[in-house]
Amino acid sequence: MLGISTVLFAASCSKADPGPAPIINNDVIANTNTKIEAPVPINLIEGKWVGGSYNPVGGPVNYFVLNFKPGGILSVETNNSFAYGTWTMAGNNIMATYTFGGESIITYSLAGTYSNNSGLQIIEGSIGIGTSTTGSGVFSVTKE
Description:
Lipocalin, 10% helix, 51% strand, globular
C-alpha cells in the first residue's frame, strides 16, 4: 500500500503536467497574438467636434457639432438648432443622448466610434430617435 501511495504522489507532482489554464471570471484565457487596443483617454474626446450628419437614404448633409464636456455633458448644434444631453465612453465607443427643446421636444441617441488616422481624430456613427441609435441618420465629425 505504501508503494502505491508513493507512485501516485510522484505522478501528481510531475513537472511535465502544466496544470489547468488560468481562469478569470470563469473564462479560460488562451495565448493569442491578437492586438488589444488601450481605451481612449477621455481628455482626447472632450472638446468640439465638427462635421456633418445626413440620412443615408437621401437628403442634404446637415452641419453637425458635438461638444463633449467634462462630466459627461454634451451640447449639440445642427443647422442653427441646439440640443443638450449626456455622453459616455467605453473603449473607443461613444454613446450619447440629447434633446432639442422648443415647440416640438425630440430626443435622439447616437453611437459612434473614435479613430485616430495619422493624427486626424474622427468619430463616425449612427443616430436614432429616442433610445435607438439607428434609423435617423449617420454622422462623421473631426476634432477641432
